[in-house]
Amino acid sequence: MNEENLSFLQEQVMYAGFGDTLDNALKEKIAQQPETFTLEYQTEYGKDKVKAELHFSQSNKEEYSDMYFFNSYKVKLEREGQPDMEQQFYINKGGSITLKEAYNLMCGRSVHKNLWNKNGELYNTWLQMDFKQTNDKGNYGLKYFNENYGYDLDAALQKYPLKELENETYKGNLVESLKKGNPASATLVKEGMEDQKVYVVANPKFKSVTLYDSNMQRLGRRRREKQNTEQKQSKKESQSQNGEENSPSAKKKTRRKARAV
């Protein structure tokens, strides 16, 4: 067994977000020297269940037949009240998507990554899954929002009075969490009112951030719904009053008042 290759693979698996729980299983599989093999992994994020299938293959060059490669992993996401979803993620040089990032992408959030282009140049970009298109393998496409798109996360955060922005360490932690695609916990400062715990989500497509309450309900949505309800109620009352004013009985009263004058 190529111990150096094994150590490298174990490190790859760990940095891909699977920890070291698969170390022994990986070693056992390689000892059997199959051409290809898979390993199973599962975890939970809150109430969401994530199952992953890791894919490995043996080198096709005879002189390197003792070497294996970690090629990709397929994620199955099970969320309460929603259909199950699957997506394949590939292991790339220096820019692989971790399991937690994969989960965040599958939940519709955005992830910031450093990737290599075809010319071997490193660039950074925001990724977001495109649920409107799939390729021939059934994988959803990815949208890219790179530096030229003009998304400034710091500027987007500054539009809100968040307590964490007052401290560079807390701000750094907040930004780092957002770049991983997490709904980052923060504190919204309200003048003359009690501070509100919120969750912040990066929204590169609209060059903004989105705030949610503790129940992951988007802030502002309830207020708009209330305003819409009040407007509809006001319109009904106005129509009702107009209807009463134009009724035969109302017109008779008007004529009586006119004769009395």
Can you give a write-up of this model?
It comes from Sinomicrobium pectinilyticum. This is DUF3945 domain-containing protein. This protein has about 260 residues and is α+β, with helices and mostly antiparallel strands. It has two domains: about 5-150, no CATH class; about 155-210, no CATH class. The protein has seven helices and ten strands. The chain has helices spanning about 5-20, 25-30, 100-105, 155, 170-180, 220-245, 250-260, and strands spanning about 35-45, 50-60, 70-80, 85-90, 110-115, 120-135, 140-145, 185-190, 195-205, 210. Strands 1-2-3-4 form a four-stranded antiparallel beta sheet, covered by helices on one side. A three-stranded antiparallel beta sheet has the order 5-6-7, covered by helices on one side. The longest helix is centred in the C-terminal third of the chain and has 25 residues, at about 220-245. It is elongated and about 90 Å long.
**Structure annotation, total helices:** 7
Tell me, what's the shape? elongated
Number of strands: 10
Radius of gyration: 28 Å
Widest β-sheet, arrangement of strands:
1-2-3-4
In whole angstroms, the N-to-C terminal distance is 111 Å
The low-pLDDT segments are 222-232
Overall number of structural domains: 2
Briefly note the structural class of the backbone. alpha+beta
Strand content range: 25-35%
- Secondary structure: helix percent: 25-40%
SSE string, helices as H and strands as E: HHEEEEHEEEHHEEEHH
Largest sheet, strands/sense/barrel: 4 strands, antiparallel
The overall pLDDT, averaged over residues, is 87
